[in-house]
Design a protein that fits this description.
By secondary structure, this protein is α+β, with helices and mostly antiparallel strands. It is built from 5 helices and 5 strands; from the N terminus they run αββαβαββαα. The protein has a 5-stranded mixed beta sheet. Strand 3 (about 80-85), helix 3 (about 95-105) and strand 4 form a beta-alpha-beta unit. The longest helix is centred in the first third of the chain and has 12 residues, at about 10-20. The radius of gyration is 14 Å and the shape is globular. It starts with 10 loop residues before the first helix and ends with a helix. The relative contact order is 0.17. The structure holds tetrahydrodeoxyuridine. Tetrahydrodeoxyuridine binds next to helix 2.
Length: about 140
């Protein structure tokens, strides 16, 4: 697989998958829905939505749900791109915890996925490494 696979990425379709996922959000406490869509190098898209809890601190972000779904299905790399959609905001980017969770998956094969974030406004783009520079990772534990 070309390392440049993201050039073939259908960003609109991936964001549409995130938008659809946001429709499954369980966000009765914040009223802030989020959807995430992870694109893998084999073309598979795994989605997630935020799942809140009456014990607020137990709530799960959309990106974290998507990563947990993907990894629990056996995925250990190949993450090409991530789209995050927040229909209740002008703009959105992944929270700090989700950046770390995404970095764990991406780090398994040394990939640096494209991250797309959009609310009701324009889509913004980053590399994951730019959203979480000098990330904590397994190397720190091993040293
Ligand atoms: N949320 C996400 O799902 N992803 C993020 O990156 C930011 C925040 C959720 C958590 C909570 O359910 C709601 O948005 C408000 O913070």
């Amino acid at each position: 697989m070309s390392p440049n696979v993201s050039s073939n990425l259908d960003k609109t379709a991936l964001m549409q998958a995130a938008r659809a996922a946001a429709g499954q959000a369980h966000a009765p406490y914040s009223q802030f829905r989020v959807g995430a869509a992870l694109l893998f190098a084999d073309g598979v898209v795994v989605t997630g939505a935020n799942v809140e809890n009456a014990s607020y601190g137990l709530s799960l972000c959309a990106e974290t749900v998507a990563v947990a779904k993907a990894m629990s299905e056996g995925r250990r790399g190949g993450l090409v791109a991530v789209a995050v959609h927040g229909p209740d905001a002008d703009e959105i980017s992944p929270c700090g915890r989700c950046r770390q969770v995404l970095t764990e998956l991406a780090g398994l094969d040394g990939s640096d996925p494209l991250v797309l974030g959009a609310g009701t406004g324009d889509v913004r783009e980053w590399r994951l490494s730019a959203l979480l520079p000098d990330a904590f990772g397994p190397d720190a534990i091993a040293s």
